[in-house]
Write a structure and sequence with these properties.
3-stranded antiparallel β-sheet; 5 helices
């Protein structure tokens, strides 16, 4: 029976945490206006309920240090890649070499692979376009860049977060 109590406590904590994050998102997007409180409450409840149905609370712990490292890495890579994409787009002497790159991933199909594809879709210059066997297909602005090495580094950073290390 104690396992049930712990599972219930974890579910309540997860729901409360998600609700707080959804409320913060609402406040960032819509601002603070008392007139919007009923809509905010309905949106937070619906978003929390939906998120709990789509991604059940887990017993895994995420490493805050690994999450912070991933966020910092993502921010730095985004800035560097954005500058590079803008430079290539605006300077006609720097031709683009668009094409597709197959990236062999160690991540199983499902949640982990979807999180990875979503994360890498936010980086300028690469867009995941499909999934073949154990490979993700990326459309890249410049296939001459070390795309596979960059994706491998992103996958390793994400694995540290997901594995709690």
């Amino acid at each position: 029976m104690p396992g049930g109590v712990h599972e219930h406590a974890a579910a309540v904590t997860s729901a409360a945490s998600r609700a707080v994050w959804f409320l913060c998102l609402w406040l960032v997007l819509a601002g603070v206006d008392p007139v919007d409180l009923p809509a905010a409450a309905a949106a937070v409840i619906a978003a929390t309920w939906t998120s709990l149905r789509l991604l059940a609370p887990g017993t895994q712990r995420r490493s805050p240090i690994a999450m912070a490292q991933l966020a910092l890495r993502f921010f730095c890579e985004s800035v560097v890649a954005s500058v590079d994409v803008a430079r290539r787009a605006l300077d006609p002497r720097l031709p683009l070499h668009p094409g597709f790159v197959l990236y062999p991933t160690e991540l199983p199909r499902g949640e982990r692979r979807n999180v990875f594809a979503t994360l890498t879709s936010l980086l300028p210059g690469t867009v995941p376009t499909g999934d073949e066997e154990e490979q993700l297909i990326y459309h890249c602005l410049d296939v001459g860049q070390p795309i596979a090495a960059q994706l491998a580094a992103e996958e390793a950073a994400l694995a540290r977060v997901l594995d709690g290390g």
